[in-house]
Write a structure and sequence with these properties.
This protein is an all-alpha fold. The protein has one domain: Formate dehydrogenase/DMSO reductase domain (Formate dehydrogenase/DMSO reductase fold), CATH 1.20.1630.10. The chain contains ten helices and no strands.
Length: 274
């Protein structure tokens, strides 16, 4: 009989913050490379947000391992089959991109901006990886439910995009930047990411069939339906639809999306260990 890994809340937070970091970074890089001059504020907030979140992910990994030197050992030897080794490398490499991009985002030099855009364009793929690899690893495990959840990586990626955009939206609202095209583009992008996330969630449940019981009808069902589907997806989408011109409502919707992103990772990780 296979034993579940008994991951604690630190790993839930690692998955959650890593998703936001990846989503915020590739949102920033897309705004930087393909947006207009009005989108530079979005890019700066996204770059600067991703850096401390990646640092927190590294600290959570070190804390979960118990001994700091184990983290350094994982960085010396890359093991694709070891989730923690893969996570250490993902955090380390992506951390370099977030650091350089954050520093360059503080400069107004045209040459620095050009370099930042090039680095950000490459860093997008590492952001994608950090946001989705945890879901891919879960679906490649031998444990029931996880092993059948082949869309988990795509779902985590969509959730990372949504929560990353939501986090940028909240910061822009709090700092008085919730105006102009940048704000409206963020909200439109979040709508698209939420729709994709909901479609992937429905597809995942459909493909899982009876294996989805731990989520949809077990002990964690109220959190799944109420916290993820209701509070995290349906309510913020409705709020943005009925009051899209009200900035405070948009910020509230973004906060609810973050709640939903956390609940997603919590129920996925904890339901199989209950």
């Amino acid at each position: 009989m296979l034993k579940p890994p008994h991951w604690e809340m630190m790993i839930v937070w690692y998955f959650f913050l890593g998703g936001i970091a990846g989503g915020a970074y590739f949102t920033a890089a897309i705004a930087d490379n393909f947006g207009s001059a009005r989108d530079r504020g979005v890019a700066r907030v996204g770059y600067l947000l991703s850096l401390p979140l990646v640092a927190l992910c590294g600290l959570l990994l070190v804390a979960d391992l118990g001994v700091p030197t184990r983290f350094m050992n994982m960085m010396r030897v890359f093991k694709f089959s070891d989730p923690m080794s893969l996570g250490a490398w993902a955090v380390g490499v992506f951390g370099l991109f977030t650091f350089v991009s954050s520093v360059l985002s503080l400069s107004s030099s045209p040459s620095h901006a050009a370099l930042r855009r090039k680095i950000g364009f490459v860093g997008i793929f590492f952001g994608f990886f950090l946001a989705s690899y945890t879901g891919v690893l879960l679906s490649n495990s031998a444990l029931p439910f996880w092993r059948d959840a082949r869309l988990m990586g795509a779902l985590f990626l969509a959730s990372g995009a949504s929560t990353g955009i939501a986090a940028i939206t909240l910061i822009m609202f709090a700092t008085g930047q919730a105006t102009g095209d940048g704000w409206h583009k963020l909200k439109r992008a979040d709508h698209v990411s939420m729709i994709i996330e909901l479609v992937l969630l429905v597809a995942l449940i459909g493909l899982l069939g009876a294996a989805a019981k731990p989520l949809i009808s077990g002990h964690f069902a109220p959190l799944f339906w109420g916290g993820l589907v209701g509070v995290g997806l349906v309510v913020p989408f409705v709020l943005d639809f009925v009051a899209h011109r009200t900035r405070a409502v948009g910020a509230l919707a973004a906060a609810l999306i973050l709640v939903g992103g956390f609940v997603l990772r919590y129920v996925v990780l904890m339901s199989i260990q209950a």
